[in-house]
Amino acid sequence: MKTIEAGTLWTSTVERLRAEIGDENTELWLKPVDALTLEDGVLTLKVPNKFFSDGIKERYQKRLISLLRDEAGYEIGLDFRVERDLTRVLPPSDPVPVASPQSDFPLSELNPRYTFDSFVIGESNRLARATAESISKSPGTQYNPYVIYGDVGLGKTHLMHAIGNSVRRHHPRARVLYTTSEHFVNEFITAVQNNQIEAFRARYRSLDCLLIDDIQFLIAKDRSEQEFFHTFNALFDSRKQIVVSSDRSPKEMSPLEKRLVSRLEWGFVADIKPPDLETRIAILRKKAAHEDYVVPDDIILFIASSVKSNVRALEGCLTRLKAFQAMTGEQLSIDHARDILKESMELDDSSPVRVETIQRVVALKYSVDVKDLKGHQRTVSISTPRQVAMYLSCVMTELSSTDIGRAFGGKDHSTVLHARKKIEKMVAADPFFLEIINKLQSDIKAAER
Ligand code: ADP
Ligand code: MG
To answer: Where are the alpha helices (DSSP H) in 378-412?
Structure first.
C-alpha cells in the first residue's frame, strides 16, 4: 500500500476527472473543495456548503471513487464536511471601532427603516423572509446565491436592505454592498470609458456580501452581464454571499446567459407573492403605528380589501389619508376616506382609457404631432411612436384592432397587429424599453383622470 497524502491524492484525482468533465465543471464543482484528511481509507473533503456536497455526490461521486482507487491503489471512501466557519472571512467577535475599517471603502447606503422587524410576515413571504434572516446571520454559507423574486411592490428591496442591515450588525467588519443592476451597468460603463476597469473589479471582488437588486435589468446588456458573471464567480468561489432580486424566476430570465441562470438556480430561490388580506391589514396597522397615526379599523379594512396586489400602493393610501387629516385636523369617517382614496384606487385597477389620451401622451413623449401618429410617414422617428401608441391602444383599451386602425387615420387591422407584435418583442428584449412603456402607461392613466 502506497502512503499518500490527502492533498496530493485529491489534486491528482481532480486532474484526471477534469479530462472527463471539462474545465468548466471542474472549476465550478471541484475547485472550491479542499482535501482535509486521509485516514483509514476515508478521504475527508471540505465543501463550502451543502449544495456542493449534494451536487458532487449526485454528479461525480461514483467516478471519483473509482479514480481515487486507481490513484491510491486501494479502496477509498469519501466524506464531506461543510465548512460553516466564517471566522476567517468575517471575524465577528473582533471588536472594531465602527468607522475605521470601512472608511476607505465607499459602501452603499442602506435604508435603516428596512429591517426584518419592520417587515410583516405572512404566508406570501414567509420563506423569503426566513431565508433572508438566516443568511444575514451566517452569510456565504448555506443559501448562496440567494434569489428573491416577485412582482413589483411586494418587498424585495425591503428584504435586501434588511439582510444588509443585519449582516452589518452581526459582522461589523463585513463589506456589504447594496446596488441595483442598473447602477452596476452604469458604473461598469463609466469604468470602461475611464479605463478604470481594474478598480471596478477590485472593488466588487473585495466584498463579503453583494446585494444586487432588480437583476432583470441586466438582461440583454451583454458586456455588463459578462462582467457580472465574472464578479459573481469570483465572489462565489471565495464563499462570499450573493443576493439578487428579480421580477421573475431564474427560469424566466431568458435571454440572460444560460451559465448565469444555472448558477442562480443552484442557490436558493424564494418568491414573494401578493399578501393575503390578513397580511395587508397587519402591514397597514404596523405602518400606521410606526407613524403614530391612529386609523379606525373600518378604514384599515376598507383599504386592505381594495388594494390587493402592491404593498407600496397600500402604504400610499395611508400616506394620503394622513396628509389629508393633517390638513383638515379632523378624524376621517369611512365615507370621507373612501372619497379621498377613490382616485388612487382607480389608478390601481385597469379601467380602460381612451385612444385619444394614449395618442396625446405618446406624441408628447416622443415630440411628434398627434396627426403624425395618424399619418403614413415611415421614418423611424415617427413610425416607432406610432407603433408604441398602437400597442398601448391594444393593451389599454377594449377596442378591436379594426377600431384601433380606424382611430389611427384609417389603417388596416393587420397594421395594428404588426405594431403590437413588434413592440411586444422589443419590450421582452429590452428592460429599459419596458420601463419606458410602463412609464407611458402610468402617464396615460394619470392623464385620463
Ligand atoms: P419591491 O422591491 O418588491 O418592488 P419594496 O421592497 O420596494 O418592493 O416594497 C414596497 C414598499 O412596501 C416598501 O415601503 C416596503 O417597506 C413595503 N413592504 C413590502 N412588503 C412589506 C411587508 N411584508 N411588511 C412591511 N412592509 C412591506
Ligand atoms: Mg425593488
So the answer is: 380-396, 401-407
CA angle 386, 392, 393 (to 5 degrees): 90
> Which ligand lies nearest the alpha carbon of 180?
2
> What span, in angstroms and rounded, lies between the C-alpha atoms of 100 and 87?
20
Query: With contact defined as beta carbons under 8 Å apart, do 315 and 287 qualify?
Result: yes
**C-alpha cell recorded at residue 281:** 391589514
Under 8 Å between Cβ of 404 and 355: yes
Question: 180 C-alpha vs ligand 2 centroid, how far in Å?
Answer: 9
Contacts of 166 (CB under 8 A, 6+ apart): 115, 116, 133, 136, 137
Instruction: Copy the grid coordinates of residue 375.
Output: 399619418
| CA pair distance 421, 425, nearest whole angstrom | 6
Does 283 contact ligand 1 (Cβ within 6 A)? yes
pLDDT in tens, 154-203: 999 999 999 999 999 998 888 999 998 888 888 888 888 888 889 998 88
**For 406-427, how does the pLDDT look when each residue is reduced to its tens digit (9 = 90+)?**
999 999 999 999 999 999 888 8
| CA–CA separation, 251 and 307 (whole Å) | 29
In 181-240, at which residue ranges do the beta strands (DSSP E only) sit? 209-213
Answer yes or no: pTM beyond 0.90: no
- The whole-angstrom separation of Cα 110 and Cα 107 is 9
Spatial separation of the C-alpha atoms in residues 302 and 308, rounded to whole Å: 11
| Residue with cell string 407573492 | 273
Select from 193, 252, 197 the least CA-distant residue to 230: 197
The CB-side HSE value for 120 (13 A sphere, CA atoms) comes to: 22
Write the CA distances from 212 to 80, 220, 359, integer angstroms: 31, 17, 37
Nearest to 38 by CA among 18, 10, 65, 64: 10
Q: How far is the CA of 111 from the centre of ligand 2 (A)?
A: 12
pLDDT range class, residue 357, cuts 50, 70, 90: very high
Q: Is the CB of 120 under 6 A from ligand 1?
A: yes
Contacts of 311 (CB under 8 A, 6+ apart): 153, 154, 155, 275, 280, 283
| 3-state secondary structure labels for all residues of 10-51 | HHHHHHHHHHHHHHHHHHHHHCCCEEEEEECCEEEEEECCHH
**Which bound ligand lies closest to the C-alpha atom of 154?**
1
